[in-house]
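Encode chain A's predicted structure.
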Amino acid sequence: MQHSHLTTLHAVVLALDTLCQDGTCIDELLAGSGIAPADLQRPEMRISIAQERQVFRNATARCQDLGLLLGRRMHVSSYGLLGFSLLSAASLGEALEVAFSFPALLGTLFTLQLRRDGAQAWIEARDYRDAAELSTFNTEFCLASLKLICDDLLGRPLPLARARFTHKAPRYQRQYRRDFDCPVQFNAADNVIVFDSQWLDRRLPLADPVTHRDTLQRCHQLNREFLSHQALISRVRQLLASQLPESPGLDGLARQLRCSSRTLRRQLQEVGTSYQSLLDELRFEQARRLLGEERLPIARIAEALGYSETASFRHAFQRWSGTSPSRYRRPALA
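Encoded structure for chain A:
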């Protein structure tokens, strides 16, 4: 299953809280993401994976071990309704199976698999699907947060036998031993944490069959709604991307989707976005690609994105990124 184009602000807020406790670097970390500081106070807001990715690019440039730092703070309660369903499961194994069956609600960029082989069990994160330069960060974030989820569910630390990572050993590799408390291997064939399989059968201290059954049903409903919203967003993005030089406008897009503009506006609002936000996101993605990979004149780039005047494009790019197109391009061409 492909990861959603939309996600919550939770991980972004956590990153900002981790790195900007005095509030001085928020603008720096949000630069180029299109997320305004005021948006952080809107819990219902949804942002694109591209926006979240930009914040993490900014943040990892400032703090290389951010994946481990965030993973240690993503408690099971961070996952809302899914977290309550996991806490009320009968055993650790059942809870993990539930978690991995809802990758959209878990917000993972990996395919997660639980394997059991005799005396040992593995949690594997494979098939990574995001920016290559954030692979190490996302792998650390994923496995560190999964370790913390297990600790929270059990009410005590889950003893690990070993952990393996496909990336090379970072400069801060000693922190892995602290966070995973087991032998750690880098340049491995897979990304896994390994533990005694008996823990999968351990009854959870907060197990409650009634609560688990109720929350599991609600997770299925929430997942269906999420996938329905995602299908709409994917279709809107597809249509807008194919018409980027001459965007159809809200009314034109609604006609293509065979609904009223009022209905389309409401549906987009329900998932925390809008026609203009999605159009700006696509234009920003395309602008960065053209500025970074090609040597087209800025006027031609503006035209390719549907701007009749170069000045309008410059103003929009400044608003999206916090810098001008020419200054953004300079490092890319250096």
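DSSP finds 16 helices and seven strands in the chain.
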